[in-house]
Amino acid sequence: MMKRFASHYLLIPGVGFVKQQVVEISDEGVAQNIFPLNEEVESVEWLPGLIVLLSVHQMEEIKNTGMVVKNIPVFQQNLPVLIVASSCTLNDFLDTSRKSGEVLFPYLFYPFDFTSMRPVDGTRHRLLR
Predict the structure, then answer these.
(1) Count of alpha carbons within 13 Å of 116, Cβ hemisphere only?
(2) Rounded to a whole number, what is the distance in angstroms from the first to the last CA of the chain?
(3) Separation between Cα atoms, residue 51 and residue 9, nearest integer Å
(4) pLDDT confidence of residue 35
(5) 86 pLDDT exceeds 70?
(6) At 65, is the pLDDT very low, low, confident or very high (cuts 50, 70, 90)?
């Protein structure tokens, strides 16, 4: 059974921050689908903070920084904040990743500074399951 999570923003490295999106994940925890949260939807778990879609390689990079905020690679890029993004575009990104053999896993970063769009001291991350 697919699980669905939503948060204030979704970050897709290389794409940007997208406001209020739902990430649907498989039983294996892999991101399968993304769609906007326009209204309250049954079986969507709302989480405070930021959901980031990361490959295994990107997550290893983060673990190697010891969560020192200024060293986390995905937050070093100046990515755009996209208030609206096409679900087709976001799902095309997921399909392209899958076809290249790279699956993406959703991680929650909380607390998160939405003014600077950066983690704060004390930000923790966890894999969503």
Answers:
(1) 11
(2) 11
(3) 7
(4) 92
(5) no
(6) low
What's the rounded Cα separation, in Å, for the pair 122 and 101?
33
Predicted TM-score of the model (pTM): 0.88
Phi-psi region of 43 (alpha: psi -120 to 50; beta: other; left: phi over 0): left
CA 87 centroid distance within chain: 14
| Cα separation, 19 vs 29, whole angstroms | 22
Neighbours of 74 (CB within 10 A): 20
Question: Token pair of 52, please?
Answer: 């980031």
Q: Which tokens go with 50? A: 């930021």
pLDDT at 54: 93
Identify the pLDDT of residue 69: 57
Beta strand 3-6 with 44-46 is parallel
